[in-house]
Amino acid sequence: MKSLKIPRGVHRVLFKTLNTDRRLMHRKKFASDFTGLKKDGHSGLDYLSVSAYDDAAPTHHIFLRNREIVLVEGLNLDGIKPGKYTVHCLPTRMVGADGCPTRCILTA
């Protein structure tokens, strides 16, 4: 993460990875070889899970314990170019759930 040189003051980062290039969100079959993070990295990613398939539980537990980072998974970033944007995530209220469907709006 440090090598990305994200400027100070940036509070939200969306990562467009090879998941988008591979059009994984458009496939009917789940792809377990998707790009994801191991437990030592945190962010928002463009597929069904922020964590790598083989490291799912430890990564999610770190996020849940931290509570400073909100996960947004399953983003469709087709056609989105790198740059500065504002993202608004509008969650559906679900009592007793630790996650829920969200409508995210990205504006330049």
UniProtKB/TrEMBL annotation:
Principal subcellular localization: secreted
GO molecular function, one term: arylformamidase activity
Keywords, alphabetical: Extracellular matrix, Secreted
Single biological process term from Gene Ontology: L-tryptophan catabolic process to kynurenine
Superkingdom field: Eukaryota
Cell location: Secreted, Extracellular space, Extracellular matrix
Family, similarity comment: Belongs to the Cyclase 1 superfamily.
Official protein name in the record: Cyclase family protein isoform 1
Organism the protein comes from: Hibiscus syriacus (Rose of Sharon)
Higher taxonomy: Eukaryota, Viridiplantae, Streptophyta, Embryophyta, Tracheophyta
